[in-house]
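Request: Give me one sample?
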Amino acid sequence: MNRSLALVGVVLVIVSILLISIPFLVTSAFQVNDAVYAAGFLFLVGLVILYQAATAPDPRLTTVGGLLGNPIVDESRKAEEAVTQIPPSHVRYAPGPKEPSNCRFCYTAIPWNILNCPRCGRPRLCRNCGKQLFFLAGAVRCGPCVRDETQCNCPRVRPSGVRPAGVRRLGGGA
């Protein structure tokens, strides 16, 4: 609710009621003249402003750049822009237990319950440790730890010839 706009609406409604009631209180007779028409118009305008001020969820939306009682509108816009400029985090979600995987050789999608690639026929490898999967205890599981592929806790195996990142070889280079 924007209180400054609501105050403007209340003042207009009170002025319109006074314009209608004062001639009646002074002369004890209701007279329809230009003041009554102006009061009716002011009453409607005051009600519209009151409705606008009361139903606005955010006071920044009902003001014109801080003109009607919100001097910090520029600061709040800067804060909103700073929040929207934060780069998205690169979150990697763990695969589900029944999520298909891709063949490491031909990149064909392999369902979770099949051992060999349907295209090239090579055995499927564990996503975590890189070892061959087997059909154990009624499910496709990692052989060394006998767990589901997504819950494998084997040590990770690097392909041969690949160095860990950040490690340099010492000695004479070629």
